[in-house]
Amino acid sequence: MQATAKKNELNNSNATQPSSKSVNVDPNEIKKFEDLAHRWWDRDSEFKPLHDINPLRLNYIEQHSGGIKDKKVIDVGCGGGILSESMALRGADTLGIDMGQAPLSVAELHALETGIENIKYQKIPVEELAKEQTGQFDVVSCMEMLEHVPDPGSIIQACADLVKPGGSVFFSTINRNPKSFAFAILGAEYVLNMLPKGTHEYAKFIQPSELEAWARKSGLQLENIKGMTYNPLLQSYKLNSDVSVNYLMHFTKPKN
Predict the structure, then answer these.
(1) How far apart are CA 239 and CA 170, in angstroms?
(2) For residue 47, how far is the Cα from the chain centroid?
(3) Measured distance CA(232)–CA(235) in Å, rounded
(4) Gap between the Cα atoms of 143 and 248, Å rounded
(5) Cα atoms in the 13 Å half-sphere on the side-chain side of 9
(6) Which long-range contacts (CB under 8 A, 24 or more apart) does 39-47 make?
(7) How many Cβ atoms sit within 10 Å of the Cβ of residue 214?
C-alpha cells in the first residue's frame, strides 16, 4: 500500500510532465534506458558500472568545484538519479533532468524512499531549460550522456548557458580511437558483459580535443582533464592521466 501511494504521488506530480518540445533527442537511445529503468538501482544489474564509478565522479566534482554543499546544482541526463542523489546527499540543492520518463520516475521514487528533500527531477530538454534558467546554477554536470545524443555541441552550449559566471561545468564521455572501441564496446559489451550489447556506438564517441573545442566556442575554459580506467582483475575503477578511453573534463565559466 505504501509503495502504491508513493507511485500515485509521483503520477500526480508536475515534476516530470512532458515538455512541449523535443530537442536533440535520439528516440532509440531513450528507449534503451527506458527498457532497463526498473533495474537502475540494482547494483548487480547493467547499471553496476555507474554505481562503481559514482564515488569517483562525485569526489571529482566536489573537489574541483570547491565543494557543492548549499550550492545550486543541475545534473543533465540524470537517468535514474545515481549521481543526482549523491550530490543532494552532500548538501547540494539538486535538479536532475532527463528525457526518459521511466528513469525519472525511478529516480523520484528512490528519492522519496530515502527521504531526500533537496532534490527535484524534471523531464525537459536541456536547451529549453537553458532559455528559462540562464546563469542560475553554480555547478552543471553532464555525465555519460554526450555520446548518446545527435548534437553534443548543442548540449555543451546549453550547459554553458545554465552555469553562473565563475561556476563549474563537468562532462564525462568516451574517447574515439581503436583502444576505446576495443575496451568500451568489444570488451565491456561483448567480452565482460558489463553493459548490454548496443549500449554504445563508436561513431558517437568524442575525442577530448573535440569536446574542448565545443566548450571553448560556448565560452567555457578548460581547467582539468582526467582519465578513468577499469581493472577487470580487481573489478575496480580509478582516475589517472590515461584519457584514451573514459575521461572527465572540468570547465569554468569566466566571470564578467
Answers:
(1) 15
(2) 13
(3) 5
(4) 8
(5) 13
(6) 40/79, 40/80, 40/81, 40/82, 40/103, 40/106, 40/107, 40/110, 41/80, 41/82, 41/106, 41/110, 46/195, 46/196, 47/80, 47/82
(7) 21
Q: Cβ atoms within 10 A of the Cβ of 256, count? A: 5
Measure the CA–CA gap between 145 and 243, rounded to whole angstroms.
Answer: 17
Q: Per-residue pLDDT tens for 232-253?
A: 777 789 999 999 999 999 999 9
The C-alpha cell at 139 is 555547478
154-201 pLDDT tens trace: 999 999 999 999 999 999 999 999 998 887 888 776 666 777 777 778
Overall residue count recorded for the chain in this entry = 256
Q: Which DSSP string do the residues of 12-46 spell out, in sequence order?
A: T-STTPPPS---S--HHHHHHHHHHGGGTT-TTST
Closest CA to 241 of 199, 208, 212: 208
| Ramachandran sector of residue 144 (left: φ over 0; alpha: ψ -120 to 50; beta: rest) | left
Could you give the CA distance from residue 108 to residue 123 in angstroms, rounded to a whole number?
A: 12
Percentage of residues of the chain with pLDDT beyond 70: 89
| Cβ atoms 221, 228 nearer than 8 A | no
Indicate the angle between helix axes 101-114 and 82-89, nearest 10 degrees. 30
